[in-house]
Every structure is written in C-alpha cells, then in structure tokens.
Amino acid sequence: MPMRKWRPQDLDATIDTFRRAVHELAAGDYTPEELEAWAPQEADRSAWERRLEDSRGWVFQINGKMGGFITSDAPGHIDLLYVHPDFRRMGVAGALLDVLVADAGARGITALQTEASRTAKPFFEKAGFSVLRAERVMRDGVALERFVMERAG
After folding, report:
1. With contact defined as beta carbons under 8 Å apart, do 129 and 116 qualify?
2. How far is Cα 71 from Cα 77, in angstroms, rounded to an integer?
3. Rounded to 5 degrees, what are φ and ψ at 41?
4. CA nearest neighbour of 4 among 80, 96, 74
5. Of the candidates 48, 51, 43, the residue with the CA atom closest to the CA atom of residue 77
6. How far is CA 49 from CA 53, 97, 121, in A?
7. What's phi and psi for 28, nearest 5 deg?
8. According to the model, what pLDDT value does residue 23 have?
9. pTM of the entire structure?
10. Which residues of 26-64 form beta strands (DSSP E)?
C-alpha cells in the first residue's frame, strides 16, 4: 500500500491537497465565500506548521504524488482528512481512515471523534460515525457549518 507517515517536507503538498479538496470537492455544499474562508488562496504556512508539528499523520501516495492525508491531533481525534481531487473515489479516504483506526487501536484508543464538513459527513456515516451535534465555526468572519461526529469503540 502506498501509505507512509507524514513528514515536514510534505507541507506544501498538504496545503495544496487541502485547498484543492475544499474548493473542488466541497463546492457543491458551500458557497464561494465559505470555501475561501475555509481554505484561503494564501495559506498561512506557519500556522500549518504549528498545527501539524504535534500531529500523527499519514500520506497516501499515488505515482509519487499526494493522493490524500489524515492527521490526529489528540488521542482519538481526527483533525484533518482530505483527498486530492485527482484521486477521489479511489478508496484513498477509506485507506487513510483504516491506518488511523489501526494506529489508535494499537495504542488502546477505540472511540474516535471528528468535526466533519457537509461534504465529509456521508463518508464518516458510512464508516460508522454518528452525528453528536451540528455546530457553526467562524473562519475569517464567515460562519461554516460542520458536524461533531463520533464512532464508539
């Protein structure tokens, strides 16, 4: 399987994958204003570095390119899961989630939680997650809807 641990040198590809996934895959679920607030044209690389430096993360590579990535920023919490639009519907998200679930299980963590977008909610529901509540978060002065979801152990 083309899976490996996330490395700091993956930062640019991570930001690109995130931005493209948001703007291309979530475009049917959010307005252009919401998409730009969520994934601005100019990424704050320092903020990304700080966010990822203490995370556990994995990258799915396809032909040497980042097909997607997943990170956990606390035991049992999925922080980021994004698939590059060129590789959607190829099982990348499921493979990434499987790696994180296996890693969590090896550390004795059975319950998982995440905050899913409208776009990601059906994926997580199919993976056994349930919605605990909907919430709105502010990004650059714009309210974005997301769903706090959990998969019990």
Report:
1. yes
2. 9
3. -55, -45
4. 96
5. 51
6. 6, 22, 26
7. -80, -10
8. 97
9. 0.95
10. 56-62
Could you read off the pLDDT of 9-50 as tens digits, one per residue?
A: 999 999 999 999 999 999 999 999 999 999 999 999 999 999
- The average confidence (pLDDT) of the chain is 95
Q: Which residues pair with 66 in a beta bridge?
A: 61
The token pair at 108 is: 């004795």
Amino acid, res. 10: D
DSSP reduced 3-state for 40:
coil
Provide the token pair at 78.
């999925």
Report DSSP state, residue 91.
Answer: S
Q: pLDDT class for 54, splitting at 50, 70, 90?
A: confident
Token output for 122? 């059906």
Kindly provide the residue ranges of all beta strands, DSSP E only, lying in 3-75, ordered along the sequence.
Answer: 3-5, 56-62, 65-74
What average pLDDT does this structure show over 115-133?
97
If you search the block for the tokens 């590579």, which residue do you land on? 61
